[in-house]
Design goal:
heterodimer; A: 144 residues; alpha+beta; Sufe protein. Chain: A; 3-stranded antiparallel sheet; globular; B: 404 residues; alpha/beta; Aspartate Aminotransferase, domain 1; Aspartate Aminotransferase, domain 2; 2 domains; 4-stranded antiparallel sheet; 17% strand
């Protein structure tokens, strides 16, 4: 097999936004993020290799990406629940989108709106920022 | 156990994080600073700032006096025979690099360096590199399942070809207090030619130190893990060991005389302090040592030890929590994992509750590999932590477990 199956998106961006709008405390929010993470399909072990590893010093992310019919196909996984939940949110924004749309989408604004922006900070060491950077550069390469 | 409260001396601790009063349990990464350290550094820049050991003016004299008083205070604090055996560096990492790259110049293929699998990368990679450059062989003593150095393996790896032995006084990842006196005795007996460096980064604040009695060739530690500033550290050395060491960096105060044909180098400690030193950092470290001399340190160390053992017991009793490392003697640190949750999840959920811990591999990848884990959650205590911090940690852990 050339590529793993693209990771199904557990919840759409609209669903995520609407759900977050009801939360008024950290507990509901993080329970939901963890639920999203638990709902995320696992990347088969065969793809969780050094080659596809986005290293973070606290948690790790595996990312396999390709474009098919002009749309980005992403298979992503992590070893931490909360990071998996955050990946679900990233996928809601990026999965199966044309690279040009990925380049114009403001992921920081989305995470800021959900009050999760701190998790995108490189200093968190969770690999999330490195993952987003890699997806964006793949999208850039695909548009050239 | 004790009513002594030094928390008020540390301005940073009086803040809220994520809407809750901060519980700071990441002291093995860095400690907070008492007001007296902040004041001393500010005072230096406000009134005494000048370059040291040169110029005839009053400011230069005050700056030099302040820095050299700090050196003397550190020497007394660690039991060094003389202030010039206290070399100022940027931190433990630079202290180890100084010794490693200087000693590497005298190594030949077939020589051996012995470290342990417990080391922080800062006391592992410099030796790895020293071996790569010199052709020496890196030996690594294993650790047991309890997170202690396997002394039998350590002994077996000592040989007449061993030129350097380097190990931690206290493990940063697990808190294991290593039997450094016993290990030193083994080295002196089995590998008399070897120089010994002890990484004291995690010990300096918690373990009473007498470097003369301990008699390692080198002892390294960092100011910022003992209430002092970052970017400041110490390399203590036996006089003969320091005098035999070639200089590490060149320029500035480390030079005595230069002609077009020859350069002669300054005496100890300046020979190892190239360039304008971190004067404010040295003064901050001196103030930290002065502060430690004014608080009832023994009592506070005992309180910290009892907090650590209470934390261990309480965490081990929580369903799904597993302690990583169960050494007989430990200092300051409890490392653990939660079933069904990654260390990062636990750290994030504790942070939401205002509790700061460290998660990850703690810059000890060989140790994590040896213990078969990817990382741990590490709660590390200091002298200002009290029972209320432990209670908040445990309460936050109970809540965290309901998420995973």
């Amino acid at each position: 097999m050339d590529h793993p199956a693209p990771t199904p998106v557990p919840a759409s961006l609209e669903e995520i936004r609407e759900t977050f709008a009801f939360f008024d405390g950290w507990e509901d929010k993080y329970r939901y993020v963890i639920d999203l993470g638990k709902a995320l399909a696992e990347l088969p072990a065969a793809w969780r290799t050094e080659e596809f590893l986005v290293r973070g010093c606290q948690s790790q992310v595996w990312l396999v990406a390709h474009t098919a019919n002009g749309r980005m196909q992403l298979a992503i996984d992590s070893d931490a629940h909360i990071v998996r939940g955050l990946i679900a949110i990233v996928l809601a924004a990026y999965q199966d989108r044309p690279p040009r749309e990925i380049l114009t989408f403001d992921i920081d604004a989305l995470f800021n709106e959900l009050q999760l922006l701190a998790h995108l900070s490189a200093t968190r060491g969770n690999g999330l920022r490195a993952m987003v950077t890699r997806i964006v550069s793949l999208a850039q390469a695909a548009t050239h | 156990m004790t009513d002594i409260d030094i928390r008020g001396d540390f301005p940073l601790l009086a803040q809220s994080v994520n809407g809750q009063p901060l519980v700071y349990l990441d002291n093995a990464a860095t400690t907070q600073k008492p007001r007296s350290v902040l004041d001393a550094m500010r005072h230096y820049y406000e009134f005494d700032n000048a370059n040291v050991h040169r110029a005839a003016h009053a400011l230069a004299a005050r700056a030099t006096d302040a820095m050299e008083s700090a050196r003397a205070a550190v020497a007394t604090f660690i039991g060094a025979p003389a202030p010039e055996q206290v070399i100022f560096t940027r931190g433990t990492t630079e202290s180890v690099n100084l010794v490693a790259s200087s000693l590497a110049q005298g190594l030949v293929p077939g020589d051996e360096i012995l470290v342990t699998a417990m080391e922080h990368h800062s006391n592992f990679v410099p030796w790895f590199e020293a071996c790569r450059r010199s052709g020496a062989v890196l030996q690594t003593a294993g650790v047991t399942a309890t997170g202690e150095i396997d002394l039998r393996d350590f002994t077996a790896r000592l040989s007449p070809r061993t030129r350097v032995v380097a190990f931690a006084h206290v493990s940063n990842a697990l808190g294991t207090l290593n039997p450094v006196e016993e290990m030193l005795a083994l080295v002196r007996q089995q590998a008399p030619a070897a120089k010994v460096l002890i990484d004291g980064a995690q010990a300096a604040l918690h373990v009473p130190l007498d470097v003369r009695a301990l008699d390692a060739d080198f002892y390294a530690f960092s100011a910022h893990k003992m209430f002092g500033p970052t970017g400041m550290g110490v390399l203590y050395g036996r006089r003969d060991a320091l005098e035999a060491l070639p200089p590490y960096q060149f320029g500035g105060e480390m030079i005595e005389a230069v002609s077009l044909e020859a350069v002669t180098y300054n005496r100890l400690p300046y020979r190892f302090e190239a360039g304008t030193p971190n004067i404010a950092g040295a003064i901050g470290l001196g103030a930290a040592v002065d502060y430690l001399n004014t608080i009832p340190r023994d009592t506070l160390v005992r309180r910290e030890a009892s907090l650590v053992s209470d934390a261990m017991r309480a965490l081990a009793d929580m369903p799904g929590v597993r302690l990583v490392g169960t050494p007989k003697q430990r200092v300051g640190v409890v490392s653990f994992l939660v079933e069904g949750g990654h260390a990062h999840d636990v750290g994030t959920l504790l942070d939401q509750q205002g509790v700061a811990v460290r998660t990850g591999h703690h810059c000890t990848m060989p140790l994590m590999h040896a213990l078969g884990v990817n990382g741990t959650v590490r709660a590390s205590f200091s002298l200002y932590n009290d029972a209320s911090d432990l209670e908040r940690l445990l309460r936050a852990m109970h809540k965290t477990l309901t998420f995973l």
